[in-house]
């Protein structure tokens, strides 16, 4: 049966990779997820067969865990709205990291401090992998809890830290965690020096505190990158746990998640013109209060749905800039209907997608794909920025920080140097917002007060629906 297990794992790996390939586009993403899910089912079956062949009754516990996981996982996945999808992603990712940390703790207890690993003397790579999984898994779990809290607005989106002492405290915690891990590892190699289980518990606690203190100081504008980074860490910790357990499914799946998450994190950081260490050291938003002060004294223009419809209907190019406000209002279908009316009048409609628009990687792409917006109409920042100069209207729907020209023009701005969409190059800019409040990073946007900008206040879905009615009358 060993050969059957190996064959099933190979099939599972192939399905993982093939499913991941499907995630490269919205048209194949659903099928890709389904294929990967089948691969995971095959891997679970292979694991149950391996447990049975080992003469263990633990398969009962595994099945019970699967039932509980399905019961807890499916309802929120079905009921969660797209507006809360980033929170769900952060939470599910955290559960993965926490699971890996608990596996490492359980293996420590089951093997008598890694001295007797399932009846065999553990080798160094098993001990190192287990301790690595414990540290990274705990960091990922507690960091994801903070990310969830910020996205759910249970915690403030602004950076929360210890000021100048933050990095020193984080470094001390990291050194302590590594020190405890080294002590446990040395004790595991020496059977005459058994180590107490409290040391492993202490390792998980210290790593958990480090996870909290690493993510708390990161501001809202960096949250999509943080989610991607935590996802990569969870994958790496799962791969390490798989190495310790000699579980091929965990190794391959963990490496796929870790590698893809690392690549995505790096690409998003480059798109923001920021390094990953700079993001971890503390995100945007630290100067929010100063940046946003005094906007009440500045003048801005208001417009109506009728005027907005006229401007767009008689233009040649309209660029829609979606943001989190579009997701909150669930306005993606209304925007698609508006675009169809404009295209019927001979107007070209494009969608400008910033890499970190929304609250998670690819948030806007997912929203628009849900409304069957053609994928070739969604243009990434580098591809669309030159088009704004030709646009008659840039319609900004709920996007704030990613359209802020202060990132280019104001060296004192907390987001200075971050690449943004050049909406201010358009002939006319219409910003759909509920109010003049600042964005998730807590930074005021000078775009709102530019002479070419008009503010259209209200719920995005309601406002776009009003524009649709006006377009029908033209």
Automatic annotation (TrEMBL):
The chain crosses the membrane at residues 6-23, 35-51, 57-76, 88-106, 126-148, 168-186, 198-218, 225-245, 251-269. Keywords: Cell inner membrane, Cell membrane, Membrane, NAD, NADP, Translocase, Transmembrane, Transmembrane helix. GO terms for cellular component: plasma membrane. It is an enzyme of class 7 (translocase). The keyword NADP applies. Residues 6-469 form the NADP transhydrogenase beta-like domain. It catalyses: NAD(+) + NADPH + H(+)(in) = NADH + NADP(+) + H(+)(out). It is found in: Cell inner membrane. Its main location: membrane. Belongs to the PNT beta subunit family. Its EC number is 7.1.1.1. It is a multi-pass membrane protein. This is NAD(P) transhydrogenase subunit beta. GO terms for molecular function: NADP binding; proton-translocating NAD(P)+ transhydrogenase activity.
